[in-house]
Every structure is written in structure tokens, then in C-alpha cells.
Amino acid sequence: MADPKPLIIRVAVPSPLRRTFDYLVPDSLAASAPQRGCRVAVPFGKREVIGLVIECPQSSDFALEKLKPISAVIDPQPLLPESLFKLFIWAANYYQHPIGDALFSTLPVLLRNGSELPEIKIANWRATTLGKGLGPDSLKRSPRQKALMDELLEQPQITQEQLLETHSRAALKQLREKGLIELVLQKPEPVDLDNLLKEQPLQLHQSQQKAMDAIEIHGFNSWLLDGITGSGKTEIYLQAIEKILRYGRQALILIPEISLTPQTEKRFRDRFAVPLVTLHSGLTDKARLDAWARAKSGDAQIILGTRSAIFTPLKDPGLIILDEEHDQSYKQQEGFRYSARDLAVIRAKQENIPIILGSATPSLESINNCNKQRYQHLILDTRAGNASQPSWKVIDLKTENVECGIASSTLIAIKEAVSKKQQVLVFLNRRGFAPTLLCHQCGWVAECRSCDARLTVHRGRGRLICHHCNYQQRTVHQCPSCQSRELIAAGEGTERSEAWLQKAFPDIPVLRVDRDSTRNKGAMQKVFDTANSGEPCILVGTQMLAKGHHFANITLVVVLDADSGLFSADFRGHERMGQLLVQVAGRSGRGAIAGKVLLQTHQPEHPLLQLLIDRGYSDYAKLLLDQRQLTQLPPFNQMAIIRAESNNPNQAEMFLRAARSLAETISPPSPSLGYLGPLPALMEKRAGRFRFLLQLSGQRRRDIQQLLSTLCPQLERIPEARQVRWAIDVDPQEL
Predict the structure, then answer these.
(1) pLDDT tens for residues 664-706?
(2) With 0-12 CB in 10 A as exposed, 13-18 as middle and 19+ as buried, what is 266?
(3) With respect to CATH, is domain 391-434+491-628 assigned 3.40.50.300?
(4) Domain 203-380 is classified in which CATH homologous superfamily?
(5) What is each CA distance from 24 to 6, 10, 60, 570, in whole angstroms?
(6) CA proximity to 16, closest of 718, 731, 720, 716
(7) Closest Cα partner for 29 from 13, 19, 20, 42?
């Protein structure tokens, strides 16, 4: 009798190596032989790592005696459904990234480390009998505990994840120690379809209803929901989600920023009585794994997350929604450089489910896809309720007295708004106190020692900080070059604008919203609470305030520096400038009072600004598309970039010269395939490393993919590859 054929599995491991590895399944594990998509423990070099089974081939290119046996099988069943596994494989190949690193970089940390999937139980907090008997003044000396207790008394039980969005673990612990609340672990209950809604859907206006009627929830289709700010895109999302929930299916909603999570989650929880989980980098490892497992099991019907949530397994996917689809945050800029927007469309097609891409300022790529009838274009051209579009006014800074970046006529407009008990948003996309610290005597400038960038003054923290590598030092009070004490904080940041406005309006709350002011838990919620109170206030913030947020009482938006995007070296600069200005302007006039936008600029006559203000984003985008077509830039040409960085600039450049030579040998330059570089990156030195790039552009995506597939294995073998850090960036969003 012939010996049984050895069982071989092909495994991807978390490694920068662009290959998989063959292993043997020993007889002791043959009964639980792993399937494609299962995790296994395998020897790798001198250590043991967790790998993922890619396939079970009949044979190996290596001699059987050279194959090592696996150590353990972790998953009895595949960790990932087959459709999602195929998406991973497709993405790793398309973005030319090592498959093992791609697979493991998007898994929850605990799964990467070999943890088992947790049993699905919901942690609910509820008031004890003692807690229910508390008098109204029992916790008045502990306001945080009281606020938490009041919430639990209003609702019979609340999940831990919901409570931790707005309350601290310390408050939970203290109330538990007092015997006032208790944690109960329960298995999830089936969704009651008869009581799916907590509140009734809103009445749709005409353009909303037209869009809603067009959306078909069965089978694959891509819709671009192109709605002006305040037109009610979220209500379309909610009603589309309701349809698929009634079929017992799941909805995956992607948003670009963590800061948008609380507001979006609240809208969904207020509408639906179904389990909802969030997935983003701000969660603990355990919380992220629990949410991931609940999505995989089907316990969570609504999954809300940022970029990486596109790789979340779903038991019964029914709909993908990608809000603010134009946002560049959807493109991963380090490591596995995927686009969540583009992968969302691919996943929807593979799952045979619909996808809705929503934005008030769609990307030129999505508009072009509509023009080519790849997407269906749904337009919302009316604001919801009685709200109207805001009016624009250009403030010519050359003719104004300006103090701390605020023109005299702008100050008058702010005073008028707050005197009428209205709210104001002041937009400046620069955090910190001032972008530059310089010496009045000799001209010395505080610069980052690791980047081609100046240090930003953060007066509140007493620090000089590089916003590119996070290098920090104490603020200096004496010039290190000439010893002068005449140091000037030049320019304006949000911190300086906040301080000046607080001085100008001592009786009005001035709230700063940027990455510095919102780093503490619950800080963003406090801003929302103040803004939603209806009382007059002034919000000062960066682009964190520009997208997705609904402030019903803001009537005046002030853009302090409209010129920053006019002269960008990046060919996408004008597109992003238009999107940012329209988005921030759209925060104004969402209530009954008409909104105003004041645009401060030194270039009031600039044709792009005039076009954007006079004719709107649609005509603005059409002009930019025409320019892109004339210059053969994306989306009318395909692009990929080979990036290299090193402590030695010569090494990075030499590697890319060798890369270009190899590439031209594989595919010689032609009218349909071109090369540019090596060139220094727009910021050549960052975090102590010198960065260069080689740009590949072609008329057909297939040509670039074929070239890169052949080129990448050869790049790994050239001597210079060992001296630099290099990466492939397909469909780059930054130069």
C-alpha cells in the first residue's frame, strides 16, 4: 500500500518578502488540517510566527524533505469569508504589496498575535436596585458620575462601548464600587424587524425622493450621491440602510475621520434599534477585536468605520456606503498603500451588493466615472428643510487693516453675528500658535533638524513642534545665532486666532477644534454640546470642522486664508482647495437663518476663485477635468510612483536610477508609457530621511500593472535595494 500523500499548505506570513511559503501538515494535525483562510503557527527563521493559509497545493516547487511542518492550527474554520479573501489577494496584487504584510496589517492586533475569536456576548451596564433608589442630589459632588448615572437611569441598559464614547472608565469603576451599577454579559438577541426603527424617517424633498427611487438594493450598482452641503445625504443613507436591514442583511458605512464617528453613530443609533459597532484606530485592541467578531458573526447589523474597516468580514453583506468619498484620508499613505474608496467599489462588485458614494464635492475620478457611465449620478441640488445656500463675499486683504489674520470688515461681521445670538465658524487650516519663529535681528528661523520644514510655535504647550515628524523642543526665548531676545512668532495658527478672538469677545465662548484641542476623550463632544445648545459662540478650527459636521446654528463662516491652495506644486492642489472651501462654507446657514461666507484673500481676482464662487463646484470641477485631459493627468492617464528614502540622498537616487534602467528594459518609453525622474519629493527630507520618487504614467492601467509585476521581483535583487527603504504607490494621491 502506497504511503499517503503529504499534505502541503501555502502560507502568507507578516513579512516584507513578496512571496508565500510552503509547509507540511504533520500527521498529528492531519485530522484538523487547515483550510484556505485559516491561521496557523509556523516556524520562520529562528522564530515562530502566525501565518494565513493561502492555498493547499497538490505539490511544491521545493523538495518535501526541505519543507518544515506547521506547529499548530489556530482556526478550525476560515477566519475570512472567501469573497473577502479574494479582495485581499486582489488588493495585494494591484497595489504591488507583499501579500503577507497586506493581510496581517489590516487584521485586529490580537488576531495577528494568535488570539482566538471571542465568544459573542454583549457587555451591558445597568443600574442596580441601590442605584435606582438614588435621590436626585446624591452625586452632585461628582458631576461625571452623576451624568453617567442619569443616563443609565433613563435607559434600562447601555452597552459599554456606547458609554465609553462619552464617559470615562474611572466613572464606571467608581459607580460599580459603590454598588450603584453592574455589568451584565448577555448573548445577542435576534433583531426584531417589527420594531426596527426608534424614530420615523424624515419626509424627503423632491430631489431626495428622486435619488431614493433610483437606488436599487439588490445586486451590484454604484451610485455617486452628489448633494450640496445640507441637502440630506445622510437621510438617504438611513433610508437605504433600512431597506437592507429588513432583508436581514448588514450595512458597512465608511467615514474619513475618527472625529466624525460620534456624530454619525448617534444619528444611526437614534434611528435604528439594531446592534451597531464602530471600527477605528482609537479603540483598544480588545474592543476592536470584539467589534470585528460581531461583524463577522452577523450580530452587528451596522458597521461604522474608517479606512481599514473596508476589510471587515460580514456574514451577510447588503450595502456599502462611503461618505465624503472625495476625502484623501481614504488612501493609506504608508505601508500597504491602498485606496479604501476604490476597494469599496471592488468589494461591492465581488459581493454583488450596491454601493453609494456620497459627497458635496465629488472627486474628479468619481465625476469622470459618472461621465463614462460606470457610476450612476444622483444629484441633490436643494438643501433640506427651509435652509438655503450661503452667500459668498470676498474680502480683499490688500485693502483692509488686518490684525492676527482677521480683517477689519471681517471683525465687524463677526460682531454683528454674535450680537444677534448667532454662531460663527472661523476656519484656518494651520494648528498651533504660529507657523514660524524667527529672529528680528539676524533672520534666524527655527527649523526642524530632521525635516525640510519649520517648527511651529505651540504657545500653550511651550513647545516648538514639527508637524511632519513630531520632533519637539522647548520654546526658545533667545536667538541661538545672535543671542538676541527679539524673537517673533510670525503668521497665524488656530491657537493664536483663538487667543485673539477670546480677547476681542470676552463674553462669548471661543472653542478651538484641531488635533491638539481634541486629543482628550470627550473633547469633541463638548464642542458639539456647546454648538448644539444654540447659544452664541465662535468655533475656530482646521479641516476637522470642514467635513461632515452639522451645526444648525452657524450663520457665518470666515475663511482666514483662502490662498494656501492656489499655488500648490501638487497637480491635485486646485481640486483639494475647491473641495475644502465648499465643504467649510457648507457649515453655514443650515437652519432657518441664511448663511454667509467671508473669504479672505490677497487674490480676489483669481479666475479659479471667481469660478468657484460664481458658478459653484460642479462647473469648477468640469474646468479642472478639462485641464487634466489636456495635460494627460489622472483620471485620464494612469500613474504609479516608486518611492525610495534613505539617510543618504545619493543611495535613494541611485536605487531609483537602477529601477528606471530595469523598467525601461522591460517596457521601453513610448507614447503610451512614460517615466519621470528620479526626482526629489516635494519635501525632500522628512524624519531624517531623504526621499526621492520615480513616476510611471501610462494610458492603460494594464500596462503599468504588467510592468510593475515584472519589475518588483527584480528590484528586490539589485544591490541598492538593501540600502534604502522603497515602496510602490499605485494611484498616488500625493507627490
Answers:
(1) 999 999 998 999 999 999 999 999 999 999 999 999 999 999 9
(2) middle
(3) yes
(4) P-loop containing nucleotide triphosphate hydrolases (3.40.50.300)
(5) 7, 9, 10, 50
(6) 716
(7) 42
pLDDT digits (tens, 9 = 90+) for 380-418: 998 887 777 889 999 999 999 999 999 999 999 999 999
Question: In the predicted model, what is the mean pLDDT of residues 117-137?
Answer: 82
Q: Tell me if 635 sits within 8 A of 364, measured CB to CB.
A: yes
Which helix (H) or strand (E) segment holds residue 291: the answer is helix 285-297
Q: Please check whether residue 356 is in contact with residue 237, taking contact to mean a CB–CB distance below 8 angstroms.
A: yes
Contact assessment for residue 40 and residue 123, using Cβ atoms and an 8 Å cutoff:
no
- Asked if residues 336 and 101 have their Cβ atoms less than 8 Å apart, the reply is yes
Nearest 5°: phi and psi at 313? -70, 140
3-state secondary structure of 258: helix
**CA of residue 91 relative to chain centroid, distance:** 18
State the Rg of the chain over Cα. Answer: 28
Q: Which has the closest alpha carbon to 306: 317, 284, 322?
A: 322
- Alpha-carbon distance of 586 to 526, in angstroms, equals 22
- Amino acid making up residue 320: I
Alpha carbon distance 553, 536 (integer Å): 8
- Give which of 344, 325, 361 is closest to 231, Cα–Cα: 361
Q: Where are the alpha helices (DSSP H) in 483-606?
A: 494-504, 523-532, 573-585
Q: Is 91 exposed, middle or buried (0-12, 13-18, 19+ CB in 10 A)?
A: buried
Q: What is the DSSP string of 120-164?
A: --EEEEEE-HHHHT--TTTTTT-HHHHHHHHHHHHSS-EEHHHHH
Query: What is the distance between the alpha carbons of residues 318 and 238, in angstroms, rounded to a whole number?
Result: 14
- Note if the pTM is more than 0.85: yes
Residues 6 or more apart in contact with residue 105 via CB below 8 angstroms: 14, 335, 336
- d(Cα 128, Cα 36) in Å, to the nearest integer? 47
**φ and ψ at 15, to 5 degrees?**
-155, 150
Residue pair 374/224 in contact by the 8 Å Cβ criterion: no
* The three grid cell numbers given for residue 259, joined into one nine-digit string: 472625529
Strands 725-730 and 423-427: unpaired
What are 575-617's pLDDT values in tens digits? 999 999 999 998 888 777 888 999 999 999 999 999 999 999 9
The answer to whether residues 616 and 389 touch, using CB atoms and an 8 Å cutoff, is no
**pLDDT over 60 (residue 3):** no
Whole-angstrom distance, CA of residue 529 vs CA of residue 641: 44
DSSP reduced 3-state for 441: coil
The string of DSSP letters for 611-666 reads: HHHHHHHHHHHHHHHHHHHHHT-TTSSEEEEEEEEESSHHHHHHHHHHHHHHHHHH
User: Which CATH topology does 638-730 take?
Assistant: Alpha-Beta Plaits (3.30.70)
Single out the residue of 287, 247, 292 nearest to residue 161, CA to CA: 287
The C-alpha angle 84, 88, 93, rounded to 5 degrees, equals 145
| CATH fold for domain 7-112 | GIY-YIG endonuclease (3.40.1440)
In this structure, what DSSP letter does residue 69 have? B
Q: What is the DSSP letter of 717?
A: T
The neighbour count for residue 316, using CB atoms within 10 Å, is: 13
Helix/strand number for the chain, H first, E second: 20, 32
**Contact 279/303 with Cβ under 8 angstroms?**
yes
Take residue 293 and report the three cell numbers written for it: 467578531
Copy the grid coordinates of residue 41.
Answer: 503557527
Q: Give the residues across from 359 on adjacent strands.
A: 226
| Spatial separation of the C-alpha atoms in residues 479 and 486, rounded to whole Å | 8
Which residue in this structure is represented by grid cell 514660524? 436
